[in-house]
Design a protein that fits this description.
two-stranded antiparallel sheet, nine-stranded mixed sheet, Rossmann fold
Length: 214
């Protein structure tokens, strides 16, 4: 696929994750990779007539709620159907607060694979281990250390775990992928703020996840 149209959807809650700062960072590194990028905070972009033209949805939100129409449009777009009103199946890229978003929708959380519970205070560096180095999304990515919010989540497998973190003797999935209908889902709990999103390892995983099934 030569032309890839990406929707980057942000959240209105700027107290923790300011989309006015992070959105342009996404736009910059995605456009440098050759993608067409639309930034918005308008959840009506999930409606069938709006989401149809996009190939990939990148979700960098915190909180918020979906209407039934928005939920249906988003999930059906990922599921995909050659005869459906949302067009070809999409790839959904959930970043960080995507697991704390749309918690009024159990179907969305099952699609994503997790629900955010809590994180330790920001400020500690963590070691992240790549456990599937041969996976296409992990190409060019090796074990790394990063200061980020370590999300502890209620998880809804099955999914394929790509990166883990050992925290207090428990191995926590941090990055994973899964299928959803005919579409694909990628989630990374990394990406709290400007420092984290600007990391080359973070951007590499996002770009690889977009390219993987195109």
């Amino acid at each position: 696929m030569n032309y890839v149209n990406i929707l980057v959807i942000g959240g209105l809650e700027t107290k923790f994750h300011d989309f006015s700062v992070m959105g342009p960072i996404f736009k910059d590194f995605l456009e440098k990779s050759g993608f067409e990028v639309t930034l918005t905070e308008d959840l009506d972009f999930f409606l069938p007539q709006n989401i149809k033209k996009f190939h990939v949805i990148v979700c960098y939100t915190t909180g918020r709620e979906l209407t039934q129409e928005q939920e249906s449009g988003l999930l059906n777009a990922i599921i995909g159907s050659p005869w459906g009103e949302t067009g070809e199946p999409k790839t959904f890229i959930g970043v960080h607060g995507a697991s704390s978003s749309f918690q009024n929708s159990k179907a969305y959380l099952r699609m994503l694979g997790a629900r955010f519970l809590i994180h330790p205070p920001l400020g500690e560096e963590y070691r992240f281990q790549v456990i599937k180095p041969d996976h296409p999304i992990m190409q060019g990515v090796s074990d790394f250390t990063l200061m980020d919010e370590l999300y502890l989540m209620e998880r809804y497998p099955p999914f394929e775990t790509l990166v883990i973190c050992d925290y207090r003797g428990f191995l926590h999935p941090i990055v994973w992928t899964k299928s959803y209908g005919l579409g694909n889902v990628f989630y990374t709990a990394l990406g709290h703020g400007e420092e984290q999103i600007n990391q080359k390892v973070f951007q590499k995983m996002i770009i690889n996840a977009i390219n993987w099934k195109l």
